[in-house]
Structure formats: structure tokens, C-alpha cells
Amino acid sequence: MPLSATPDVIPLYLESHAARSGAHTAAFGLGSAQEESHDAAAAGASHQAAYAGQPRIDELSTRYGVRVPEQSLRSFGTYFNAFPASYWRRWTPVRQVNLAVTTSGAGQIIVYRSNARGAIQRHDMATVTGDGTTLFELPLTAFGDGGWYWFDVITGDAPLTILGAQWTADSSAARTEGTFSIAMTTMNKVSYVLDNIALLSRDPDLREKLDVMYVVDQGSDRLSDHAELAPLQEAMGDQLRIIEQGNIGGSGGFSRGMYEASTNGSSTYVINTDDDIDIEPESLLRMITFADYTRTPMLVGAHMFDLNNRSVLHAFGESVDPWAIQPRVTIPESTLGHDFAAEPLRSTPWLHRRADVDYNGWWTCLIPTETVREIGLSLPVFIKWDDAEYGLRAKKAGYPTVSLPGAAVWHITWTDKNDALDWQIYFHERNRIITALLHSGYERGGRVLTESQSIDVKHLLSMQYYTQAARLYAQTDVLRGPDVLHGEIGTKLPELRQMAQEHDDSVTRPDPDSFPDVQVTKPPRKGKPFSAPHRALLPLWTVKAMGRQLLASPPERARRHPQAQVAHQDAKWWTLSHYDSAVVSNAEGTKVAWYQRRPEQVRAMLTRSARTHLDLYRQWNRLRDQYRAAAEEITSFPAWERTFAANPAPARPGIDDRDGSGESSDETAESAPA
């Protein structure tokens, strides 16, 4: 049951209504039969009404039990309590699991299973009276493409208490029984980190498996500055180590933690985690247990729920499109941002299909330390694409990745971030091209260069000149080759932030009233909002729009007053291209910027974009060979040791005690031993 039983998380653990699958019948894969839906609205509505509403919060008073009132149904066919049978069937030698349910009182326990289409099937049932444990033996011989197991409980005239329930497997089928270290990298998010340390310190089951929690602190507001750390350090002892180093990004922080875990002589696994997450501790135990049972060592990732909307699953499983080198969902019919409170697991067919992935985001991902020792650490790319590239590299070396249902954390989702427009776009662009050079099997990277150039055009049409300047900088840096990556890992961010001051679209203010008032000079045709051009007319439309951007000077009035105020969600390229100036809000809704059309910048940047893409096209094969030849060295332990040593935690005059050399006297800020 949830650690904190709030209404927004209860649907992930327990439900109080019956469900129909929502699955469709099929004509043996031929697609000729009429589809018939078994959804909850069409059938069983009266049955649902009998069990409507969420379980009462006071029913969930313990971590591993629940009180079921009389004349009630409680279903454990939920994200955190159903058993992901198809994943165990695919990746482990286990062919039978046992479900043991310990109860007090009278009622019925019904075990259900599903298939890859999401069709629900009753598997077994038992009537219980008094106190005892009911055991179900559940085969895994099916579930080839998907499916779950779960159980429901129904009571009669008296309540029933579930004292505990466990899914177990024969321990002799396990490949190993491992321990783990955590690699958490942080920058100025002290409260999140302290909360996560405190949570882990109170969990004896996790502490039994934990070797060391490495917190790599790269911020100016450091954990060691806060008195709240001392009691946590005392409680954790040698299981907590704070490492201070310079800001060399997520790839530098994770690489440091991976390095430490892979050289400490005890950890079987290292779990990379972001700092600004809320952990479901049981997830870590499930990831470790699953990793112990896999036929061969593999990476095991957790899913991400929305920290601000906790019943919403942000992504179920992701792969890399080999033609475009872009993330894509593995299950085509899946929904980004699926809300379990509105559409439960049992009633959502696509959630029952197994998602096979290329990588898992490093918000939380387990990596065997033997994998790290064999294929090295992260690419030295600061942020963006480090996790995806590592998954692709591990897969080539024989270490696949699974995104394991039932294991998850809560994290701020990308929809609330502005990273496609701010300084991070440099790393998006550069690291995507580098990933293509390293892993694309297509001539000149498939669609990467043509798509990159079209994105350049869209930013120029949108008056996003800082974003485009950062992209051009990234493309130029790719051409410089891999040898500069380590040396410049800590210098790019300051350069990008300085560059932002040179462009209107990146200078933000708190609200629109900070700018001159809006004066409309040319309203939309017939009052209709601007819409995307039809695909067939897109080339002609783009030429016309770009011609205006290149040649027509903006009217003087548009230089003095923005022509519109545009919300972030409406700031599409086909909308912004119609304006000479506009005030545009950011994704977080905290600031606005005044975009102003500048034909001279468009001309210069469009020329540079054509030149850099032509250079990338001509030199692709040479760059591909160069990056692939250097990959083993730049991800190696010795290369990273030099980078750690070159980037100690910077001195803060008046705050840190220094030894006079300008470097921290704390040994945790020194480079790791060879």
C-alpha cells in the first residue's frame, strides 16, 4: 500500500470496482471481422455501480495490508500490485510463480490473468474463512507477448483483512543474489535529496541490499551546508557518501557514481537516479530481484509518473527510431501521459502488451556493474542522450534493457520544461548527431541531417534566434570531433548562458506588462486562428514564409510594440511566422520573452545552417569512423578519472574552508583513485 495514502496515488495500488477489459475481438489477425468492444460503459455498468468510489483512506493504514469492508470488492489489478507476468516470462527462466495471500475473516479471493490484447480471464478462486494463508500456483507458460496476473477480494456480510500478499519464485532459478549502490547526481536541489536519503534510511529491506548511496553534489548550494544532513549521515553511516565536484553535468555526475559503484568491490548493480524524484522504495527491491533472475545480466529501468499529477504515467517504454535517431514509444497505441485514475490497468488493453525497449531514462535505471566495467561510463556529453546512447551501447555488447512495470518513481515531466528552446537545445542537437554517428546503420545517419535542417528553418520562422544560435554552435562542435568532449564538458554551459544575453528571445521577464502594450497591425484572415499549412502545400508555403523572413523589413510599429501575446502551447512555428514581433510565454508559465523578427539574423543563420549541414553531409563517413574509434577511450575509466580530477568542487570564498590552493580540502572532492 502507499507510504502516504492520498487520493491521487490510491488508484496505483488499490481499486474498489469491477472492470471489463476494453479489449477487442479479432478475426484471427485478418482484420475482416467487426470489432466488438467489451468496455466498462457498455457492459457491467450496474456491477460497477455497486462498487463505485475509491477505497477509504483509513482502509490503507498499513504498508502491507488492507481492511476490506463488508459487501465490498477490492481489486489489486493495479500498477503497483499486479504481477507483470510477460516480463518474467520473456527475460527469466521462471515458469511458475506462487501467490500467497494471508487473510483474517471470510470472503473470496479470485485470481485473474490477462493476455497481450488485454482480455481478462478468470484463472482461479478460493473461499477463505478465519485466519490463514491461501496459496495459488500460477504458470508462466503463456504470456509470450504480454499479460499480467492479479487478484480481487470480495466480502460478504463481514469484513476481511488482508494481512499480506507475496509473489514468489523458486530461488534456485535466480542467476545471482546481488547488492546495489545508488548513483544520485544533484545540483542545488537539496530538499529533494534530503527527503530521498531519509526515505531510504527508514527502509530496512533496502538497507540490507544497499552498499553505498553516492550523492554526487555539483551545485553551489551544497548538502554539506545544511544541518539536516548530519543526522542522516549518522543514521546511514558508511552507506552514504557525499561527493563534491564541479558541475560537469548529468553525464559527469552519473559517471562518477557509476565509477565508484563499479570499483568498490562489492556492488552487483548501480542504480542511477535523478535528485528531484519521489521514490517508491519497493520499486528498487523489485528491480534488484528481477535483475537477479534474468538469464543474462541486463539493465532494468523504472517508469516515470508525473510528480505533479501522481496517477499519470509519463511513458511506458521507449526506443530509438534508427532512421531518425529520435525517441519513440515502443507500443504505437500507447498514450503519453496515461492517467490510471481515469483508465485503470485492467481496462486499458495497450498496457497489457509487453514493451521491449532500447533504453530507460536515468531518472531511475539499474545497470550491472560488470556492464560498466566492460563498456565504460557515459559519453562525456554533459546532459541529453547520455542514457539513450548508453542503452544502445549496452545492447550491442549483449546487455539489453527492460522497463519494468510495477517499478516507478515520480518526477517532473518534460511537458513542464522549456528545454527545447533554452540552453539545453545545444546538447539536444549535438548529442543526437553524435549518437547517430556512433549507432546509426544508415548512410549518413538516415533522416538526421535533413530533419535537423528543417528544424533550423522552423526556429528561424519562429523568431527563436538564440535557440538557432545554440543549434548552429552544436553542429559546428560536432565537426570538431570527439577529442574536445572531455576538455570542454564544464565550459559549454557558461558559454551558452552568456550567448543568451545577445538575443531578444532569450531575455525573459516576469509578466507581459514588462514590455510595451500589444498593438495589432494585421489581424488573422477572417478572424480565424493560424493553422499549420497542408502537407501538400508545405514546400510552397515555406518558401513564401522564408522569403518574407529574409527580405521584408518589419514595420516600425512592430519594433516598438509586440503584435500579439502568444501562450506557450500556441507558439507553433506556423503561428509565430505570421508575426513581426510577439510576446511569448515559457513552458513553466513563469516568464515571457519578446520575440522580434530580424531579417539580417535570418539571412546569416540560414547561410550558416546550409554550410554546416553540407559539411556534416560531406564529412559524415570520416566523422563516423572518428567518433567510433574514439568511443572506447572517451568512455573509459582513465579518461573520466582525468576529468574528475580536472573538475573539483569550486572554492566559495567566505563559505568553504580552503587550504590556500583554491581547491577544497575535503577528500570527497578529489578525483577518484585509479
From TrEMBL:
Residues 449-645 form the Galactofuranosyltransferase-2 C-terminal domain. Residues 664-674 have a biased composition (Acidic residues). It holds the Pfam family Glyco_tranf_2_3. Residues 500-512 have a biased composition (Basic and acidic residues). Pathway: Cell wall biogenesis; cell wall polysaccharide biosynthesis. Residues 59-170 form the Galactofuranosyltransferase GlfT2 N-terminal domain. GO terms for molecular function: glycosyltransferase activity. Residues 499-531, 642-674 are annotated as: Disordered. Keywords: Glycosyltransferase, Transferase. Belongs to the glycosyltransferase 2 family. This is Glycosyltransferase family 2 protein. It comes from Brachybacterium saurashtrense.
